[in-house]
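Recap from last week: sequence in, structure out.
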Amino acid sequence: MRWNLLYEVLEINRGCKARATAQWPQNAARPELLFLEMMAQTAGLIFGSLDDFQTDIVFAKVDHAHFHPVLPGTSLLVIQASAEEIRPEGGWFQIQILQNETLVAEARLLLANAGRLDPVSQTSVTFHRHFMTHYQIRGKVSPAGILS
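Predicted structure tokens:
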């Protein structure tokens, strides 16, 4: 993930769900675009957890997205993603963003497995070393069906 838009990864339920937090992008000209990227990053954690974050995941399609008014202030946003259908080549995800438990965005996104974008690299471009260590990703993954 090239942009670290997430503030903290809270949990990843392998192949099922993920939760993260992010800061509200107050000065963004189009916060909706950043919201979509936050959603894709959170959903990508679910997809990536299936192969221990070895392949590259790309944001492929927005089926639908709805944005609601955001409350002014500096409160954290909570991004909740759940897998709807995942296959080896891609998956559909339902994602919501909440601010103070109020829904501010929701979308259905398609993420695709791009294989290895950099065939020379020993690691995934999407889940690069800095991303994995900064968010302590592997320590946040629980087996499917178990949430902390």
